[in-house]
Predict the structure.
Amino acid sequence: MADAPQRLFFLDWLRVLAFALLVPYHVGMLYVSWDWHVKSPAAGPAIEPLMLLLSPWRLGLLFFVAGAALQAAGERGIGPGFVRRRSLRLLWPLVFGMFVVVPPQAYFEVVQKLGYGGSILDFMRLYVQGYGGFCRGSDCLHLPTWNHLWFLPYLWAYGIVGWVLLRWAPAWLDKLAERLARCRPWQLLGLLALPLMAAWLLVGRFPSTHDFTGDLYNHLQYLSVFVMGLLAARGGAPLWDLVRRCRWPALALVLLGWMLITANFQTYAQLPPPEALRVAQRLLYGALQWWAIMAACGFARQWLDADHAWLRWLAPAVFCIYILHQTIIILLHRLLLSWQLQPLPEGLLIVVLTFSLSLAGYALARRVPGLRGALGIVQR
């Protein structure tokens, strides 16, 4: 274990890149056949293989990096004020986002899916009253909603779990971190994938809901990677060097797993796969999630372990961009519908404009004290 706190710049870069990845991914959700808040008229399976490469691990990486960041905070000391600071950092942006940022997403969702004809002001009256009548069969939109901001309450809760462990079980964490640091490559990429593989087996019985209270499957996978991130940072340089050495095998396993998953999706696009194959795919999803996190950390450790002026500007921007980006995507999509663009140029234009407008929002909000906290902007 490291004797003194040392900033892991490669994890800062990973955090920036992982949040940035949300923009093209959520733009992609406009154009695939999977359910989402709003859909392009051109939605279809064309880009689904690329989306399948990203979907198993993109959020797990964020929780892994968040766990490592909590360990770094613990090295600087976590006192009784941690819970208050954590709540201000995560729950105030959640409340602000739910009542200011998210409502346009829900409005255009009911306009497109249910043919709602009221104005945005009519909708907002229903929104703040907790209206529950926007339903398609048993599928109802529960208002108010946090939509993509579900990440914030989950991260808050996992941070509290990590804080408890750091304050009252440091010796136990030390023992686990020391064992982790002594892993061999096959253990790093094999045995440590087992918790995520087990979590993915539960998705059939406990599907993903993002409603926090009834989301056992997501809690098992995301809390496990959060704690693994905490332990990895506690394990220090020897573990990170092992991860760096395993980056190419991890990447090879990711690509192999992705090809198998894509082939399975294409083979059984119109009919359900055999149950044994469904179980095997879920196990592979869990393993791929871990391999991708290890590959991302390994390559970042090799190539991005240095500070930079861009990093100092972008690191405080990630929460702001995360909070704003999905609403901007949906508004841009509605605006561009009348242009009748082809999916590729339209999607690329939405990606570029979403990044531009999100960064402009960050540049403005960081100069306004009230907005800084509401959009999660905290200087490094």
In short: Residues 112 and 242 are 49 Å apart (CA to CA). The first strand starts at residue 135 and ends at 136. Residues 9-102+146-374 form one domain. The chain is about 70% helix and 0% strand.
